[in-house]
Amino acid sequence: MTTVLTPASSSAPPTPPRGKQRKPARSPRLRAQRTLLSVTIVAIVIVQVYPLLWLILTSFRTAADFAGGNPFALPSSFTLENYERAFSAGNLWLNIANSLIVTLGASVLIVVAGMMGAYALQVLGFRFSSLVRVLFLLGIIVPVQISLVPLFIDYSQVGLLDTHLSMIIPLAAFALPMAIYLFSSFYEYIPRETYEAASLDGAGPYRIFTQITFPLSTNTIITVVLVNSIFIWNDFIFGNTFVLSDGLKTIPLGLQNYIGAMGNTDWTATFAAVCVTITPLLLVFLALNKAMIQGLESGATKG
Q1: How does it sit in the membrane (predicted)?
Q2: Are 243 and 166 spatial neighbours (Cβ–Cβ below 8 Å)?
Q3: Quick one: pLDDT at residue 291?
Q4: Is the pLDDT of residue 303 over 50?
Q5: Is the pLDDT of residue 1 over 60?
Q6: Which of 59, 93, 263, 286 is the most exposed place for a label (fewest CB within 10 A)?
Q7: Residue ranges per domain, the chain?
Q8: Which of 81, 89, 108, 99 is nearest to 280 (CA)?
Q9: Where does the chain have alpha helices with state H?
């Protein structure tokens, strides 16, 4: 007797060919969440980008067009006279130079002191290092306003008043706690075996710092510099308190030169001056944005 093998029941669903697998259907709740997230992101981008775009467009409007028409409308004509008045009405180049000196000086001081402080606290370690770290972190919650009067008195006594250092020192000091926190968080992920191997090869703490820790900290350095440079570049409170002469005014102080008699302000020239002053910082931020994100997220890889 011969047994005949019958094929599988035709009721079974056919197997789809490879490369054409059907994607699982998204649930309505997931689609709603994605839509809400997309709308939120678009709204945030509009809120962030619109003021900058409006500032740039307004800097090219004529003064009569801005004063007589809708200030939020598109320019009816474009002109470069606002930029000419921006440089002629105030010492814009001198203000930019002063801001560069203060920003670079404070950034260097923040990076050097922050790296060395974090290296001593996190890598070398010493007695009561945890207490010292807590004291540094407490500096984050200290408001800068309480230091203005004591610093003014001290600066006037030691001859630092109305100098670049009068702005560089407090700006670096108040940014130091956050810098130490960022560097310490990064050093925590560097394998201890790396330091032990360097010590066995005869490297001391200074050589380990310069040849191992410092090269690995490039992205963290960029992060610390960019985060603090934005606040240093736009600082007004320390400059307005400790700077007395026009030759040392930074950009936020120099913008006061565009306010005329009886509070009249040349708005279009002011907007042009603001565009000139924010362009360098914006370009640097866009160029180093990727390194900044890596400095916030990445650490040394163990392996």
Answers
A1: Multi-pass membrane protein
A2: yes
A3: 66
A4: no
A5: no
A6: 263
A7: 32-79, 94-244
A8: 99
A9: 28-58, 63-68, 81-89, 92-118, 129-138, 148-158, 165-187, 192-200, 205-208, 214-216, 218-233, 237-242, 251-254, 267-287, 289-297
What's the rounded Cα separation, in Å, for the pair 63 and 60?
Answer: 9
| Residue with the larger pLDDT of the pair 117 and 25 | 117
Instruction: Kindly report the backbone phi and psi dihedral angles of residue 289, in degrees, each rounded to the nearest multiple of 5, phi listed first.
Output: -60, -40
Q: In this predicted model, what pLDDT tens digit does every residue of 106-146 receive, in sequence order?
A: 999 999 999 998 888 888 878 888 888 888 888 888 888 88
For residues 116 and 103, give the distance between their C-alpha atoms in angstroms, rounded to a whole number. 20
Q: CA–CA separation, 109 vs 165, rounded Å?
A: 11
CB distance 107 to 221 below 8 Å: no
Tallying the residues shown for the chain, one arrives at 303
The residue type of 20 is K
Residues 6+ apart with CB under 8 A from 160: 154, 166, 169
Instruction: Give dist(CA 238, CA 170) in Å, integer.
Output: 8
Longest dimension (CA), the chain: 118
Q: Which residue has the tokens 């930019």?
A: 96
pLDDT, tens digit (0-9, with 9 covering 90-100), for 228-257: 888 899 899 999 999 988 889 998 888 877
The rounded percent of the chain whose pLDDT value lies above 90 is 19
From the number of C-beta atoms within 10 Å of its C-beta (0-12, 13-18, 19+), residue 301 rates as exposed
Phi-psi region of 125 (alpha: psi -120 to 50; beta: other; left: phi over 0): left
Which of 180, 192, 249, 259 lies closest to 220, judged by CA?
180
**Topology of the domain covering 94-244:** MetI-like fold (1.10.3720)
